[in-house]
## 1
Amino acid sequence: MEAVIFNRLQILINKTYYATKRYKVPATFALLYHEDPLTHDELGSFLRISDHFIQIDDNHYFLNFSHTNQEDAFKAAKNVLFGIDKHFNNQKSYIAIDTYDITKNPKIVYSRLEQILIETKKHSYTRIEDEDVLNELI
């Protein structure tokens, strides 16, 4: 990942942690993989107005489901996938969701999301997974 993109990711994660500490606002981080090109505007049309995202590369977006606990983030992720599936007319997109923990530094957050995404693409039929998919490997 480019240094500029990682810096933006750190800022977004740290701002989210601040909101959690200060205002007790929940959030959930996710990583979206899509096979075909997806513009900012296209992805934005599938997200809620309160959500934030950063493009990592041509096939990945980091998602911040703001004001959303993990259970509700699954529902939001399903809606995102539904929109992307309909847009591309395929089911080749995946979303990894990790447990929100303000003690994790941004590098760990992203690394765990990458690991979850890899396992989701290999083994999952749901196309949306959380850290439980990593526990299945043990």
## 2
Amino acid sequence: MVTALALAVAGCGHGSPPTAPPPVNSGTSSGSSSSPSASPSASGAQPVEFTVDGAGPYTLGAKLTDLQAAGKVANVTHGSTDCSDIITAQGIAPYAGVQLSFHADNILYAETNTDPGLPTPSGAYVGTNLTQLKTIYAKTTNETLNHGTSMAFMVITISGRAILFVLNEVQNVSSMVAGDSLYLRQNFVNGTPFC
């Protein structure tokens, strides 16, 4: 059940979580920062991270047609086994481990990260365990969610967007989903696909 749910959330997974997550930089979660979103660096270069707003050029609310025109997507597919009305696509390097989900109107509404090398700004990775997540996000609005034996940890920002960390049977992150917090919560708790 956990594996099926993780696959439903992640879509086409890319690899499996590492046996041990990359080291967590405890310095990124200290201080007064309570948002898992990134802000541009002083140099203007955008960090390669997965945030509540998306990853790199894949900002929630972006249009598929614009991303296609810029050559920023691969493997565009109309419909899926669980969701006939959506369009999915894959990011390109360094975001090749990010699956993009668009409604029929071509608007990006959710994205799923299965890349163990693509962290959140606070230092959480695919493979990070629940105890580490609770430490990293101790000063944020967060909650633990359950659906049957499946479990997830969600970090919510003041904007209403969130990252849902889907956990495997040993409570390590198997994927991360960015999107609207109410939508992510409802679909995970009800066990419905992210359509």
## 3
Amino acid sequence: MNSDIHNQAIILFDEQGTPTFRIDKETDSFIGVAITYNLTHESEIFRQCGDLFGLYNANPLKNRQISNTRVENITNNLMQLPVQIVIASVNLTNAEFQQVVTLYEEYGNLLRTRHRNVRERPLAHILHSHVLDECVFNSIRNYTESNQIDTNFSVFIDDWSIPYDDIKITLEQRSQYLESKINSIYQELNLQFRISVPNISLLNEDNSRKRFVGVLASVVSKSFMNTENERYNENPLNYLMTIKFNDYFEITNQTIEFIRDFMDESSRNPPEF
């Protein structure tokens, strides 16, 4: 963390859906959800939504326990809080997406074996990394655009059982890349603020932050369920996107192009996977 930066923001990330191409999955989308707020607002945010989100219950709320009435109440509550929300999704039924990602999985695992001598990385981790990067990058961008002040971003992500061989890349190198990339963009645009992103932390213990983003992700996921599902509810996504600096990105085609370009470039200059 840069000690010269006094404004502190929190980014919490969680995902919903089953990152697989199997036909027996409950939803056709895999989504990532990030929520950003100023650290000084955290206590008041949790106080205002504690009961509704079950932050202080004996056990956290599960997706299936959140009724449509509660979904509406939580969505309305979120729209009143000093938070910013970014959502990213990929379409798991897209045939071209399946083909490209499957090829990328095989190609990446070959490079991991040859150049790093580490275990394979499963498909789920590949999909997770893409929605994570999209959500965190745009969360930082939206927050700095709306506040225009030097800010340190503490990022907390779901405990995704990261392979041991990838911990440094996932938690350290990702934060370093985000910090460098975004500051470079701001410098090119002549913007007079900068950001700091310390190593990403895991939400590996039950606490208010983990429950807060978990409930948010569960509520948002209702908008991505198949329409014949009794728990489908289009309102969370529609309502939340009416708030300035909230964003939704459907990144299926973007991910296809990124992977193709990446494989083409890495065939000449093999990177770490």
